[in-house]
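Hi everyone,

Forwarding the result from last night's run.
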Amino acid sequence: MKDYFVYIVRCSDGSYYTGITNNIERRISEHKAGVNRSCYTFRRRPVTLVFSAMFHDVNQAIRFEKQVKGWSRKKKKALIEGRWDDLKILAACKNATSHRFYEGRKER
């Protein structure tokens, strides 16, 4: 059974890159060496691995990678720092049309 890793690297410009691989050491080395000129990290080297999570099921890894890629920078930073309680707070909708803030709605 293969293991799969979802990882986040911090780039030299402070941005984050999220990816998936079945060989974390090789993939991080490729980012650091700039193997692929068209990769997001190529012009943002050096990169530093700041988070990784292992999965036994490739489909779960792919779902988690897509989920994390859609997250805000603040939410990714909470994940990196292990602030698990903050993830739920940062995921909550905070705009004025949210059901939590709209007091004038009618009950059905």
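The mean pLDDT is 90.

Cheers,
N.
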